Amino acid sequence: MAIARYIKFLLKSTNQHGVHSPFVYNLVTQCFYDKTKYEAYKRLTNYATKSIKFKDVKLLYRVIKYFGFTSVLTTKSDVTLINKLNALFGNTLKIQLISNDLKKTNTYDFIYLNISKLDIALFRDILGSVHNNTVMLVNIGDDLWDEIKSNPTVKVTINVYKFQLIFFRKEQVKEHFLIRR
User: Fold this and answer.
1) For the chain, does the N or the C end have fewer beta carbons within 10 angstroms?
2) How much is the pLDDT for 119?
3) Amino acid 125: pLDDT
4) What is the rounded CA–CA span in Å between residue 90 and residue 134?
């Protein structure tokens, strides 16, 4: 089943040549397809786990580097990886864990959720913590993904098969992309 899903993704997805949004084009060419062999990659090899492969850790590193985030909201199960990445960035990220008393007054630049049990209620709660330039990176199933894409506050989504990125940029036209990497 996973092979059929991946083949379907490959048939529907595109690379930078199928992207007409300057914002997404720059992200794809300067971040996703960045072939620089960063010194940090040597330290990242130890960060891969069963749930996140080395190439995904490298993508996560590049996304944080590309956007220059200062604040991160994540889960207890993901905080170890985020803390290790934070060390590579000189511990400049302010990291907050998602909890039952998520304060709606705080907003975050980056929300990282590599969890299998993200439900729409949690997603809606998290929406109170986003600002125009927040980037959310999730790893979720197709049925929830369709519901998230249809949310009016979600403007741009990028599915790179293993992860999905969500953007809330009010100045963007609502678009959804399937990008090979």
Assistant:
1) N
2) 76
3) 86
4) 21
Element (H, E) at 156: strand 156-159
Structure tokens given for 72: 């991160």
Q: Under 8 Å CB-to-CB from 101, ≥6 apart: which residues?
A: none
Split into its structural domains, the chain has a count of 1
Q: In 3D, which of 36, 10, 57, 32 has the Cα closest to residue 181?
A: 32
What angle, rounded to 10 degrees, do the helices at 79-88 and 54-67 form?
60
Per-residue model confidence (pLDDT) at position 100: 64
pLDDT at 57: 92
Tell me which residues of the chain have a pLDDT lower than 50: none
Q: Could you tell me the two tokens for 51?
A: 């749930």
Length of the chain: 181
Longest dimension (CA), the chain: 43
Question: Which tens digit of pLDDT belongs to each residue from 94-103?
Answer: 999 987 666 6
Q: How far apart are CA 137 and CA 161, in angstroms?
A: 12
pTM for the model: 0.89
What is the extent of the structural domain holding 41? 2-178
Using alpha carbons, list the distances in angstroms from residue 18 to 5, 24, 29, 31: 21, 10, 12, 16
| CATH code for position 68 | 3.40.50
**Residue-level pLDDT at 8:** 78
Using an 8 Å Cβ cutoff, are 60 and 114 in contact?
no
Torsion region of 6: left, alpha or beta (phi above 0 gives left; psi -120 to 50 gives alpha): alpha
